[in-house]
Structure formats: C-alpha cells, structure tokens
Design a protein that fits this description.
Layout: H1 2-7, H2 12-24, H3 28-39, H4 44-65
Helix pairs in contact: 2-3, 3-4
Length: 83
C-alpha cells in the first residue's frame, strides 16, 4: 500500500486504505498521518469512519504516552490470618 501511495500520491482510496490498514495492525501513529490526509477528501459515511479511526488513534497514542496504571492491590492490606 505504501508503494501505491508513493506511485500515486493523489490516489485518495490508496491513502484511506493505507490508513485503515496501518490502524488494523496497531501502527496508530503511522495510521494517523494517512487518516488526517484522508479527512480532506472523504465525504459521508467514509468521512465519519475515517474520523472515528483517527480519534481512536489519538486515544491510543495518549494512553501509550501516559503513566502506567497503578497496582490493582493499591490501598489494600493483605494478611495471612486464614491459616
């Protein structure tokens, strides 16, 4: 797909499909680049779909950049009184 975009950089379907493909394999940062380009020329349901994928990319990137979640056991005291 990248080759198709390199050979025909104005081929809108190739740009959109590359963004969707990169999203589906978990490369959200790369996908966001192509999905932003796709927003400029898509309309209707395709535009809404691309916009939703782009928002998911941004959420994934924000979660990856944020601090790791705390321990599940944080705030609990465990004892061995059951023996």
């Amino acid at each position: 797909m990248r080759r198709a975009v390199l050979l025909a950089p104005t081929h809108h379907d190739a740009i959109t499909n590359l963004g969707v493909l990169l999203f589906s394999v978990g490369k959200h940062a790369d996908a966001a680049v192509y999905l932003r380009q796709a927003l400029a020329f898509t309309t209707g349901a395709t535009h809404a779909y691309v916009q939703a994928l782009l928002k998911l990319c941004e959420i994934q990137q924000a979660q990856a950049a944020g601090p790791p979640p705390g321990q599940i056991t944080e705030g609990y005291t465990f004892t061995a009184d059951w023996f």
